[in-house]
Write a structure and sequence with these properties.
Shape: elongated
Order of helices and strands: HHHHHHHH
Distance between the termini: 29 Å
Strand content: under 5%
Structural class: mainly alpha
Largest sheet: none
Length: 164
């Protein structure tokens, strides 16, 4: 709930709080730049010659509209991150897929385990358990590049050092 309220007043900060740094900073700076263009930079030289430069006033309106679109995307994204993951049906489906993937992993059927865990990862791309088992599978299959990417993502998201 707190990241959503934070993003309501400071767009992008909720994403940063939830470790989505690149997306959060992109949203924040996009809004800052668009607001600067539409309300500060363009009006400085436009008003005395407003009739001579009608294209600049259209550009100003377009920057404002684009800023509104980025802001609404910010709210939709943070709502999706915070509330979508908490739905019971989604949690149950994720739990079943994770158990099935771990079962295949323990039976040493790595390809079937990877397939099930990737389905689980589509439901929640930040689940550290799924990332850990996928890392172990990729490591066992010799896919070192994929394994390193998964390990980097896992190290960013594992705040409690569960899978050190």
């Amino acid at each position: 709930m707190f990241p959503f309220i934070l993003s309501l007043f400071f767009p992008g900060l909720g994403q940063v709080l939830l470790s989505r740094y690149l997306k959060g900073l992109f949203i924040f700076f996009s809004i800052v730049i668009l607001l600067d263009l539409s309300f500060i930079i363009l009006p400085l030289g436009v008003y005395p010659a407003h009739n001579l430069y009608p294209a600049l006033s259209k550009f100003k309106v377009m920057c404002g509209a684009l800023c509104l679109c980025v802001y609404l995307y910010n709210l939709w994204d943070i709502f999706n991150i915070v509330y979508y993951r908490k739905r019971k049906s989604l949690q149950e489906k994720k739990k079943i897929l994770l158990k099935q993937g771990i079962k295949y992993y323990l039976q040493n059927d790595l390809y079937a385990a990877r397939k099930e865990l990737k389905k689980t990862l589509k439901l929640d791309k930040d689940d550290i358990d799924v990332l850990y088992y996928l890392f172990r599978i990729e490591e066992s299959l010799g896919e070192t590049a994929r394994g390193k990417r998964l390990l980097n993502k896992l190290s960013l998201l594992d705040f409690d050092n569960k899978w050190v």
